[in-house]
Design a protein that fits this description.
The chain is of the alpha/beta class. It contains 15 helices and 8 strands. The chain is globular and about 70 Å long.
Amino acid sequence: MQIAMVGLGKMGANMVRRLLHGGHGVVAFDLNEAAIQAVETEGAIGARMLKEVISKLSTPRAVWIMVPAGDPTESTIDSLADHMESGDILIDGGNSNYKDTIRRGEALRAKGLHLVDVGTSGGIWGLTEGYSMMVGGEEAAVDQVRPVLETLAPAPDRGWGHVGPVGTGHFVKMVHNGIEYGLMQAYAEGFEIMRAKKPDFDLDLYQIAEIWRFGSVVRSWLLDLTANALREDPELEELKGWVADSGEGRWTVFEAIDQDIPAPVITLSLMARFISRQDESYAAKLLAAMRNQFGGHAVRRGD
């Protein structure tokens, strides 16, 4: 299947590569010329304007968007829609707010276009491991892009699924990221408690992470990445304990409040990220290290 990818950041570029490896034709666009040239050398067809993206696709067209949530996504969808025809599909694989996605889906439907929202998890590891994808949209549109989803997933029948109508993919991904906040915070706090006991026990935190990775009830991919970070820099001396949040944790907390659902762990983990921007702590440094390990997110390093 032929598809276009608009947005060639780390994840978008790796998705292009996985699709090319899977035998799909890919038209690629980004505001960064170097990013386009990089995937052209691997077999993608480069485009230098959004309308050129559309002209290089066969009908019915499918365009996957991987740009930051908010105005960048809004303007990209609006610009692409102006050049698309009835029956074409727009796929938002970014971290849009699900309420925005529902609104955009209704606007595109009025033009005869389809919106498929794909909450995408996997970060910089997706190229080799595959992406977890929570998919929202009309069944016919999702079925049309199924070959692409099956290629990007860890396996055709695993790690992805059509969860409901337009907006549900981003809603489920929002909650996924809220849970992620809580898991990461729990690991960070636990390791800080053990680090505080080092004068008495001289604990090797990397060794403990390795022990827990196998057979333990708290084993997980996040723990694997924690072990990676501790192996590389046990004291995390090169990191500052400054942790960003990309929005989904906040939205999950807002949703919990709207639904009168208690979510103290997710809420407090979000608050901990706010605290990290004011005071240094080992737990916050470990959070920063984990985000860098699984998603290549920027970290602030010490002097």
